[in-house]
Backbone:
C-alpha cells in the first residue's frame, strides 16, 4: 500500500543517499556529487521553511522516494513541485502517477491553491508525458537553463490550474484504477 508521510529529521541520511543516486541526480538541476555538509545545510533550510513541504513516499511503510512542494505562495495562490523515486526499478509501475494524484489533491483540495507549477528537463520526456496526462499545460521552454556534464539543457515549464484539475479529477482516478493503481 502506497502512502505519503511528512519528512522528518530522521530522513536526512536517506535523502542524502537518494539525492546522489545516478538515476535521481541525472534529472535534477545540480551536476555534482552533493557533499554531506551541503546536504545538511540544505536539509536544515528545507525542513524549517514554511513555504516548503516534503513527503516521504512509502510502499507498505518502506521509504521509496520523495515528493515536495516548494515556493508555496498563498498571496498568488501557487506553488511548484517535484518528486523522485529512490530505487530505479520502481519506475513504470504507476507509483509516480499515484504520487501525482496525491500531490494534486493536496495542492488543490487541501491548500486550495489556484496553480501548481513544475520544471522538467527535456532529457526526461517520460515525466513530461505523465504531467501532461494529468492536465499540465506547457507554459514555456527555458532554453539552456541548466548545465550538466558540460552541456546546456533546456527545461519545460508546466502548469496546472485548479479548475482544470477539478474538471478532470474523476477521469484521472478512473484512469489510474484501470491501470491497476490504487487511486484513493
Residues:
Amino acid at each position: 500500500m502506497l502512502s505519503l508521510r511528512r519528512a522528518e529529521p530522521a530522513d536526512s541520511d536517506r535523502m542524502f543517499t537518494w539525492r546522489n543516486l545516478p538515476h535521481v541526480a541525472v534529472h535534477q538541476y545540480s551536476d555534482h556529487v552533493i557533499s554531506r555538509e551541503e546536504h545538511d545545510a540544505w536539509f536544515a533550510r528545507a525542513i524549517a521553511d514554511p513555504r516548503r513541504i516534503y513527503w516521504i513516499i512509502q510502499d507498505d511503510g518502506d521509504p521509496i522516494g520523495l515528493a515536495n512542494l516548494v515556493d508555496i505562495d498563498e498571496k498568488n495562490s501557487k506553488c511548484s513541485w517535484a518528486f523522485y523515486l529512490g530505487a530505479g526499478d520502481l519506475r513504470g509501475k504507476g507509483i509516480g502517477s499515484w504520487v501525482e494524484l496525491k500531490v494534486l489533491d493536496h495542492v488543490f483540495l487541501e491548500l486550495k491553491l489556484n496553480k501548481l507549477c513544475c520544471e522538467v528537463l527535456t532529457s526526461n520526456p517520460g515525466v513530461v508525458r505523465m504531467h501532461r496526462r494529468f492536465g499540465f499545460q506547457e507554459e514555456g521552454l527555458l532554453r539552456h537553463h541548466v548545465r550538466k556534464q558540460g552541456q546546456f539543457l533546456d527545461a519545460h515549464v508546466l502548469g496546472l490550474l485548479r479548475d482544470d484539475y477539478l474538471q478532470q479529477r474523476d477521469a484521472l482516478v478512473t484512469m489510474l484504477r484501470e491501470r491497476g493503481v490504487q487511486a484513493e
